[in-house]
Amino acid sequence: MARDYYGLLGVGQKATDQEIKRAYRKLARELHPDVNPDEDAQARFKDISTAYEVLSDPEKRRIVDLGGDPLSQGGGGAGGFGGAGFGGGLGDVFEAFFGGGGGAARGPRGRVQPGADSLLRTKLTLAECATGVTKHITVDTAILCDSCTGSGTNGDSKPVTCETCRGAGEVQSVQRSFLGQVMTSRPCPTCRGAGETIPDPCHKCGGDGRVRARRDIAVKVPVGVSSGMRIRLAAQGEVGPGGGPAGDLYVEIIEQPHEVFVRDGEDLHCTVRVPMVDAALGTTISIDTIIDGPQDITVDAGTQPGSVAVLRGYGMPKLRSGVRGDVHAHLEVVVPTRLDGKQTAALREFRDLREKDQAEVVTSGSQHNGGLFSRLREAFSGR
Predict the structure, then answer these.
(1) How far is CA 307 from the centre of its chain?
(2) 133-183: per-residue pLDDT in tens?
(3) How far is CA 197 from CA 189, 194, 287, 292, 327, in A?
């Protein structure tokens, strides 16, 4: 029973070539394995690619319109090698040993093939990731030949049926094996499986229907992207052989390191060095945020080394959301190493006023102050 190639693409029997191409492109964008990894989607993608290959070939489409199937395997009777008596399994054995099936030829693959996807990488600063940007990139891909518009022929010339394979796309040969004489098939070396040749090819593309060219593309980068994310530009990749539909172009983001901030998702982290006196008395520090400019952070009196001050809602925006992360300022208390006589005297006077403060060795079970050593001990002990 012939397959419903029109139904696979969702078009009617009277659909034009352009309507068939548009229907294929629409489905291919949804079902391509790089976009939809689902197994059912991959199976459907193979089906619609086969349907497009058949319906874009005038001769194959004529066979479909007459009620036939140009890709039908045919096959012998119940006792034949490809017949029902063996369930088709022996054909797989033939293909594994001899590179071809034991049944009839599978038919030409057609000149028009879908194009491949392309991948480019672009570098962005942290500010560009935070606010979004339009990047202009140069793409070197195969595009439709403007001389033959994808037909591959020169002027009014037309492709002709391959004389070697007579349009089958495959050539067959008989080989002797331990099973007897076995007929095998392989792609035709003259037409490379297309079933037709171009006697007068286009002078610009040499019959391929496409040429390589550089072009500039504007890529709109959304707010909140990060390293490793990819932006998909539909139908901006390689044009397929024979002027087939173009694949997609993927632009991968590479975020450059920032001199102040370290990004963790939507949160930004930075280190702020606070003089010992300011940590003891308290102060206000200005931090130049990525989006909102300078913002003040309050350092409370008595701030200890390793403390973290947080600016809520001043971090990176979340992709496709108005939610923003926080800025975490990790406070590093700086103890002066060089003091003049006046400063030394002042500190000694301060120490005398704090005579109850004495250096002490903290026992291993104590959680006193929760200092850096305590946190390290907890980390290594698995607590």
Answers:
(1) 40
(2) 999 999 999 999 999 999 999 998 999 999 999 888 888 887 765 556 677
(3) 11, 8, 69, 64, 65
- CATH H superfamily, domain 93-256: Urease metallochaperone UreE, N-terminal domain (2.60.260.20)
What is the third-level CATH fold of 262-335?
HSP40/DNAj peptide-binding domain (2.60.260)
pLDDT tens digits, residue range 227-257?
Answer: 999 999 999 999 999 988 999 999 999 999 9
Architecture of domain 1-71: Orthogonal Bundle (1.10)
Residues in contact with 192: Cβ distance below 8 Å, sequence separation at least 6, in sequence order: none
Query: Does the pTM of the predicted model rise above 0.85?
Result: no
* Residue among 71, 15, 244, 58 at smallest CA distance from 159: 58
Angle ∠(26,32,38) on CA atoms, nearest 5: 120
Q: What SS3 class is residue 295?
A: strand
Helices 39-55, 58-65: crossing angle, 10 deg rounding: 100
Quote the CA–CA distance of 226 and 208 in Å, as a whole number. Answer: 39
DSSP β-ladder status, 283-289 and 327-334: unpaired
Q: Where are the domains of the chain?
A: 1-71, 93-256, 262-335
- Distance CA(154)–CA(252), nearest Å, equals 39
Concatenating the DSSP letter of every residue in 184-238 gives: EEEE-TTTTTSSEE-SSB-TTTTTSSEEEEEEEEEEEEPTT--TT-EEEETT-SP
Q: Do residues 48 and 9 lie in contact, with contact meaning Cβ atoms separated by under 8 Å?
A: yes
* Tokens read off for 168: 């089958």
